[in-house]
Amino acid sequence: MGGESTRPGAQPVPADEEWRFPNIYEDTTNRAPTIAQGVQEGAQLPEHRVFFFYLQRICNHCTYPACLAACPRKAIYKRDEDGIVLIDQARCRGYRKCVEACPYKKPMFRNNLGVSEKCIGCYPRIEQGQVARCVAACVGKIRLQGWIDEPQSPIYYLVRKEKVALPLYPQFGTEPNVYYIPPRWVPRPYLRQLFGPGVDDAIAKYANPSPELLGVLQLFGATQKILASYEVTASDAIGYDDSGAVAVRVPINEQLVARPEIHLNIT
């Protein structure tokens, strides 16, 4: 990527070595920065020639899950009520066809039990109206969970209306149900391989958000409840649960509080 790099950014699917080493270019850069006359190359937007970013990947609970189609034991099923894909371990015999079939490499074989396992979507929490644990525990507040088929949901807005959140490898055809807002600094050809042709429009909208988008972004990680609907006012972003009650209210512009000199944190 970035011109001289040999990284396979233009390929429609990732190369085999990227699956064998799943953290490649997440914990390490795509290449070493060049140094000329003792000065290391810099970086500037819109694209960094040397980059890395951590792509948080969980089971996509696909609309058309490849793992389900591949299982000869019919041990994998998709729940009607919420779309979560589960493995019935009482039926699983460890043939590992799901491991082979999933293009996202999410089912894993557990040797000591002889069965496959995968993310369960925290369905006990979902049944109680709570977000999945990965959403609730994220200290960076980068995750938001909701119902994509509900027009009042913030997820529907991000994916269907504003189209700033995109599926990972849509070319696989499984219709994944985890969506990503692509980073701005990664070379665009590589992002198009990851997220499809909507990358440029998504980044343009995210870089210059509308008042509504800015408000919805404040709802990320703001509550442990699943938000069924939302409202953005001039000062607040408000999330409502499925009963219509206010679940969270977040100011769009947070008040700046300056420490008095007597309490300045100076070392």
Q: How would you portray this structure in words?
A:
- It is built from nine helices and eleven strands.
- The chain has helices at 16-20, 66-70, 97-101, 123-126, 133-137, 154-161, 188-195, 199-207, 211-217, and strands spanning 35-36, 39-40, 76-78, 85-87, 108-110, 115-117, 166-167, 179-180, 229-232, 236-240, 246-251.
- 21% of the residues lie in helices and 13% in strands.
- It is an alpha+beta fold.
- The strands form five sheets. The protein has a three-stranded antiparallel sheet with strand order 9-10-11, with helices on one face. Strands 1-2 form a two-stranded antiparallel ribbon.
- Among the domains are: 66-121, 2-Layer Sandwich (Alpha-Beta Plaits); 124-251, no CATH class.
Q: How is this fold's topology laid out?
A:
Layout lengths: L15 H5 L14 E2 L2 E2 L25 H5 L5 E3 L6 E3 L9 H5 L6 E3 L4 E3 L5 H4 L6 H5 L16 H8 L4 E2 L11 E2 L7 H8 L3 H9 L3 H7 L11 E4 L3 E5 L5 E6 L16
Antiparallel strand pairs: 1-2, 3-4, 5-6, 7-8, 9-10, 10-11
Terminal-residue CA separation: 42 Å
Helix content: 10-25%
Q: H/E series, N to C?
A: HEEHEEHEEHHHEEHHHEEE
Low-confidence parts: 1-10
Largest sheet: 3 strands, antiparallel
**Strand content of the residues, in percent?**
5-15%
The shape is globular
Query: What is the β-strand count?
Result: 11
Helix tally equals 9
Q: How would you classify the helix and strand content by structural class?
A: alpha+beta
Quaternary form: single chain
**What is the rounded Rg?**
21 Å
Strand order of the largest sheet: 9-10-11
Task: Report the average pLDDT across residues.
Answer: 88
